[in-house]
Amino acid sequence: MRTKRLVAVFCVLWVGAGIQESRAEDPSWESLGPGLGFYQYDDFFVTENALYVGQSVDWDTGLGLYRKRFDEEEWELIAFEDYKIRGITVWGEDDENLLIRRWSGEGPSTTWRSTDEGMSWAQTENPPPYQPALQSPDDPDRMISAPYFSTDGGWTWQESNLGWWFSGHSQAFDPNDGMVAYYATHLSDESYRIYKTTTGGASWSEAGIFPSLLGLDVEGHNGNHVLASPYFISSSVWVSTDAGQSWTWTPAPFRPGVVTSPPWAARTFFAAGSSTDGMVYEMWLTHDLGETWTSFSDSLPPLPGEYWESWMRIQAHPVEPILYVALEPTGVWRLDLSGVSGVDDVRPVGPVERLAAYPNPSSGAVTIAFREEGAPMLRSIRVVDVMGRVVRTLQAGSDQATLRWDGRDRQGRDAASGVYRIVELRPDGHVGGSQQVLILR
Known about the structure:
By secondary structure, the protein is mainly beta. It has two domains: 2-346, Methylamine Dehydrogenase, Chain H (7 Propeller), CATH 2.130.10; 352-439, Immunoglobulin-like, CATH 2.60.40. It is 2% helix and 46% strand. The protein has one helix and 36 strands. The protein has one helix at 2-10; strands at residues 20-23, 29-34, 40-46, 50-56, 62-69, 76-79, 84-91, 97-104, 107-114, 122-123, 134-135, 143-145, 148-150, 158-159, 167-174, 177-186, 192-197, 205-210, 215-218, 226-229, 236-240, 248-251, 255-260, 269-274, 281-286, 292-295, 312-316, 322-327, 331-336, 355-358, 366-370, 379-384, 390-396, 402-405, 418-425, 431-439. A five-stranded mixed beta sheet has the order 1-26-25-24-23, with no helix packed on it. The protein has a four-stranded antiparallel beta sheet with strand order 2-29-28-27, with no helix packed on it. The chain is globular and about 60 Å long.
């Protein structure tokens, strides 16, 4: 079998020397359901308003698209009962826009679009992309579903230079540049490669060859930092600190398979995988690009670690320091990191007095004022919306005490009414402070 060949050829022994690990004190995972004993979560998506999951009974039979709003107790079946939902993308202030990839064992997959919170659906025109769609942080109409890309919000798709035969595992945008993205793919010759685009998905170039790949993500605050993980078989990760130009093999105290970087913490990645013996699932956190890891597994149910028997998907809340795990067959679990001892450095929000924004509320322009601590320094300011997307990036010189945001996004358009977070990034990549502002047009 292909899996056994991978294990035999690519299994890397974990040498404990040099790896530092710790265990979080009293992590408090909360079960949110709906544990139905299904085969796997086909996809999982978190917005500021709700959770969305696609669930399966077996390889051919799905259970449809489910949603749980954070202000409601129960899960609801939105659409496509008896179908597998292989990709979920949701956006808009009230989650009005949804894009999913529907598949069943009786026919080809199709891609569907809703503009009314899932009440009605229309099929997209072009052949469906292979991957779930991923939005650009600059423009919600630009998406990649490598090796395809869209510029009209997923209604139509164009093929990139990679060709449709490239089978993929993970993809991620640079949060600071909506034209830059990465794609982890598995080729027919059994090689695994990472490709990079600087054209929003229209063209890709090779950025690395690896013995195996599954997870990949870009740090939420620094687009130069990329972390990739193997197929649950190697106690290691690959880290790039130069936007994919070079990669460093880094040992880990577990076998990572799925990785994600939250928009609300610098230099931070969460990883889901199995123990070094492959027996049970584990959840880990690093906030120094894989040099040290903290375990958050104690209160999760002890399920088998073989990914063909159980499957874990992880995603962070776009604004708050909360992590969600879809762990079949037990359901979705929630971890609030704001109260977890020993990981205070994960929190992005420094003392409010270190960064002020006024007027607040504002009808447009906002002045950002800094409170100096020690020597003056260069700063990068990010304006982030409630979905965690970077609306605008501003640079402040070391001699500046204030900075002005004109209330516009990168394309020069007026930012819509709503809540935005002003985040100060220090030269070392850490968050110096943040402040929420309300824009009222």
